[in-house]
Amino acid sequence: MFFLFVCSEFVEKEVCFKRNQFIRGTFSRSFQKNMHIKVCCVHICYTFAAVITKIKNSMRKKLGVGIGMLIVSLSTFAGGLLTNTNQHVLFLRNLARDASTEIDAVYSNPAGLAFMPNGLHLSFNNQSAFQTRTITSTFTPFVAYGGDATKKFKGEASVPFIPSLFAVYKNDKWAFSGSFAITGGGGKATFNNGLSSFESIIAVLPLAGESLDIDKYSVDSYMEGKQYIFGLQLGATYKINDHLSVFGGIRMNYVSNSYYGYLHDIKVNDANGNMVLASEYLGAVASQLPEADPRKGLVTTLAGVTTDKDLDCDQKGWGVTPIIGANFNMGKWNVGVKYEFNTKLNVENKTKINNTGFPAYDDGVNTPHDIPSLLTVGVSYEVLPVLRASVGYHHFFDTHAKMADNRQKHLSRGTNEYLGGTGMGCDQSDPGKWRYATYQIRSER
Question: What is the pTM of this model?
Answer without folding.
Answer: 0.75
